[in-house]
Amino acid sequence: MGRPGARVVASCIGAAFLLVTGCSSNSDEDQAITIAPATAAQSPAQGTAPAGVVHPVGLPIESTTFDPETRTTVVLSGEGNEILLFPAGDFTAAPRTIPLDGAVAQVSLAPGGVALLAMNTQVGRLDLRTGEVTFVPADGDVRSVAQLSDGRLAMGLGNGEIHIVNTETNESQVIDGLTSVDGLAVVGDSLTALDRGQTSVTAVDVPGSALGVALRAGEGATQLTTDHYGRILVTDTTGDELLAYTTDTLMLRQRFPAGLAPYAVAYDDTADRAWVTLTGTNEVVGFDLSSGVGVETARYPTVRQPNSVTVDTVNGDLLIGSATGDGLQQIPTRSS
Fold it and tell me: What is the reported pTM?
């Protein structure tokens, strides 16, 4: 028996496939069409010296996140059970180390200098100023987490559920229908979910406790980020493309080749540049999206296996993490 809310590919809208609910007369018979979730490509050995400066970290890096409120760079170890905090762009001094009892699947930011940690059966709230971690219980394996505009937490679970939790009242609601919730994007009052198993993005109707419009996201979507225009940028690692969606009504607005196996993505709101790492070639590429078609503006060689990227929004430096333990790369991108 299929799960309530499961969707199937029904029709094509431009370059995106629309996923709809209830194509069968009996919704219990609907089956979600899934694929093996895409991952970063296994990067080749480096043939070119990385641009900028590479800071030794001593461990593989799973993710890098920059918090503008505290000017802290949050580095998640490859094992997921340790976080390194680098203050104010200083990568020469020893970082503050935060050990954790469990593995973190994803790091996201919340207002007030807080990093949210998606973990199995809980979400960690890491105060980036003090290093203190508190935990919010969760009913399942949390793969992604985001704070909504009203302060509630949206937790994306590995079983396809989205849990909306009010941490002050302990009230919660469950929205079902995806195969896995691997990323969550908040734009204003809207919430959008990335499902790698269905390589789709789906609008989430939080007040109605239901899934909304869902669009096919290329051939194998992996990562997402947002920008100050309210767009959601998604890397299609299998299809070698970058996709840009708007959220007033979820719609694919741009789709263009990004390079071989694009994976991590970040946006510099000041310079209006999207930055995408290419795990197939050990490169990071900058794109100007203003013309409606992505125009390449810069390309730099990176550390091996560049599975994460973030932008220091104060000075525009790119911070790229090597998942093979080759360090944290810092690339200045704004002319002095």
Answer: 0.91
**All domains in the chain, ordered by first residue:** 7-331 (2.130.10.10)
Asked if 265 contacts 235 with a C-beta cutoff of 8 angstroms, the reply is yes
* 217 vs 76: CA distance, rounded Å: 26
Cα torsion at 55, 60, 63, 68 (round to 10°)?
A: -30
Cβ atoms 174, 154 nearer than 8 A:
no
Instruction: Please choose, from the candidates 236, 250, 243, the residue with its C-alpha nearest in 3D space to the C-alpha of residue 191.
Output: 250
- Encode the chain in three state secondary structure: CCCCCCEEEEEEECCEEEEEECCCCCHHHCCCCCCCCCCCCCCCCCCCCCCCEEECCCCCEEEEEEECCCCEEEEEECCCCEEEEEECCCCCCCCEEEECCCCEEEEEEECCCEEEEEEEEEEEEEECCCCCEEEEEEEEEEEEEEECCCCCEEEEECCCCEEEECCCCCCEEEECCCCCCCEEEEECCEEEEEECCCCEEEEEECCCCEEEEEEECCCCEEEEEECCCCCEEEEECCCCEEEEEECCCCEEEEEEECCCCEEEEEEECCCCEEEEEECCCCEEEEEECCCCCCEEEEEEECCCCEEEEEECCCCCCEEEEECCCCCEEEECCCCC
Radius of gyration of the chain measured on its C-alpha atoms: 19
**Who's near 149: CB < 8 A, 6+ residues apart?**
186, 188, 189
Q: pLDDT tens digits for 178-233?
A: 999 999 999 999 999 999 999 999 999 999 999 999 999 999 999 999 999 999 99
